[in-house]
């Protein structure tokens, strides 16, 4: 049965689901072990796509499964896990039902294959469908409250590809050359699908991959004009590249030397420069104050749920509390490293209020409110002068990640 085309990818996808739902690993962390020695290239991509779609639509897929069984299967029962992948393949990846059965049932060798076959046949013959918008897990919807509906609308499909340009003045040129659209100067959006390395401009370092929302914090510091800026928790480096391209003298600090290697590679590719420092921000001390500091703080990353749907199922109150404590400590330390008149921008790719609004209320600096003119058309700051984005915003143009961003000055 190992020779059945597509079966190795399904075996890897099942391991991915188990790693996320039972062990709390990220899809990225689990992919190496799940796919090692099993699949490569297109099969690896298929395994990740199957697991991702099963996680993205899991409450709705589970509801379909429950509608076709006499007794509710336990959440972690292998037949439910396999059926999640089978339905994701059929309803989301357009795999024909006969191929779904041929590649799904062997995952239950020695187990209740007849049960899985019966459930899938009932649903496929009954022309089951998923809703237009995914249903969020109950605990997640409760946390996000009134914003949950808007966020969910942005999860129906994986995101497009956003690029940040080294030369914002060439935005129209690159949008035309790449066949994309631009939502603000220095940004180009493309459909998913093409290998990054094959796109025009990659080799010459004309751009780097960066979600539109992720590009906003560095923009809020404006032109550097040779002034000193600290990019705290800098890896993977998109904001470091933005700041360097905007004329800042950048110190990029991160605790991970390995992750800083990626920053170094992108600096070399784009011809930009920054001083890279490997250190723990909770122990490191600068030699002199900075004119600006950007904190893209470690967080639960729930704002990346449209590209990393595992966060919908892994993140809970304990993770949020741990990250909130770390963020508060980073804000306190960084606030003391500013020169008089210096600017601080705080950002997290999280949809949790404890990591965003709650943190901002505790900063003892003078607010520097974000204005509409700082943002792409269609986005507005809050009444406090902060910015809260979510995957449902600008949905007609492809959406964006969820971020919280705030800005202050030191008197």
Characterise this structure.
There is one protein chain. With 411 residues, this protein is of the alpha/beta class. The chain has three domains: 7-125, N-utilizing Substance Protein B Homolog, Chain A, CATH 1.10.940.10; 160-210, Alpha-Beta Plaits, CATH 3.30.70; 213-409, Vaccinia Virus protein VP39 (Rossmann fold, 3-Layer(aba) Sandwich). Helices cover 40% and strands 13% of the residues. It has helices at residues 7-23, 27-35, 42-56, 58-67, 78-91, 97-104, 113-125, 138-144, 148-153, 171-178, 212-219, 238-245, 257-270, 311-314, 317-335, 357-360; strands at 161-165, 187-190, 207-209, 228-232, 249-254, 275-278, 290-296, 338-348, 366-367, 387-388, 404-409. The strands form two sheets. Strands 4, 5, 6, 7, 8, 9, 10 and 11 form an eight-stranded mixed β-sheet that branches. The chain has a three-stranded antiparallel β-sheet with strand order 2-1-3, sandwiched between helices. Strand 5 (249-254), helix 13 (257-270) and strand 6 (275-278) form a beta-alpha-beta unit. Helix 4 (58-67) packs across helix 5 (78-91). The chain is globular. 45% of the residues are buried.
Can you tag this structure with a few keywords?
single chain, alpha/beta, Alpha-Beta Plaits, Rossmann fold, eight-stranded mixed β-sheet, three-stranded antiparallel β-sheet, 16 helices, 40% helix, globular
CATH class bucket of the largest domain? Alpha Beta
Name of the CATH architecture of the largest domain? 3-Layer(aba) Sandwich
The string of secondary-structure elements, in order, is: HHHHHHHHHEHEEHEHEHEEHHEHEEE
Q: SS-based structural class?
A: alpha/beta
CA-CA gap between termini? 70 Å
Ranges where pLDDT stays below 50 over 5 or more residues in a row are none
What count of helical segments does DSSP give? 16
CATH homolog superfamily of the largest domain? Vaccinia Virus protein VP39
Give helix % range: 25-40%
Predict the CATH topology of the largest domain.
Rossmann fold
In round numbers, the mean pLDDT is: 95
**Number of structurally distinct domains:** 3
Q: What value does the Rg take, in angstroms?
A: 23 Å
Give the overall shape. globular
Number of strands: 11
Task: Outline the biggest β-sheet.
Answer: 8 strands, mixed
Strand content: 5-15%
